Amino acid sequence: MLAVCLLTFIAMSIAAVPATTPTTTPQPPNGIPKCAIYECPVYTTLEEIGSDMWKRRIEQSAWVHKVAPTCDRTEAIGLVVGDLDAYLEDNNINESTPIILEVAENIPGPNSSCTGQSGSFPCCDQIYELFRFIPEASEETAPIPSQDSGILLMHTYAFEIYGITFLGPNHNEEEQYEKLRKYLDEQGILYYGSYYDVAVYDKPTDPQPHRNEVMITFI
């Protein structure tokens, strides 16, 4: 009789315990850890190519950007990042990621720094321009920067890019750029070959490995 009572008690105790649903760890947007901390542009992955390349659509967004008045890449980043960060801070715009560095050939022409018409930029083989994403909440209210700041505000429609992800120092970017170009050439995909973009998600003080992406806009 005692054994029957014990079995009945155990059965009732088990029935009283609510069933638990296994929990899953939320994944960061687009699998990019920093996008779970800071707001990123809205990405739509259109195609995964191998383990590191992809085709992506960047949805409509707003950016501030500025051309660096120097031929030195490291100096360019140091000169411009502070100006873009100050614009965000002065206008109470939340910090975002990534910082995008555009590396473009300095092609002689009416708007080239080699003509001397601008009066402020040296004649370089490459032009460096930095972009900061404006979070969606501030997209419509972000003020136009002052003309003397050299900063421009840009609103873009959705556009598509090919890219390659790599972990580690940024100096690997040229190798990754050539790898991505080779793939596009082999596939017969037309793209703008006079510039490419490097998306940097981590601050220099963050522990390695840092996530970086090289991106090419196709025609």
TrEMBL record:
Pfam families reported for this sequence: SOUL
InterPro entries named in the record: Reg_factor_effector_dom_sf, SOUL_heme-bd
A GO term, aspect molecular function: heme binding
Keyword Signal: yes
Keyword terms, alphabetized: Signal
Signal peptide segment: 1-15
Highest taxon listed in the record's lineage: Eukaryota
Keyword Ligase in record: no
Family, per entry: Belongs to the HEBP family.
PANTHER family noted in UniProt: HEME-BINDING PROTEIN 2, HEME-BINDING PROTEIN-RELATED
Protein name: Uncharacterized protein
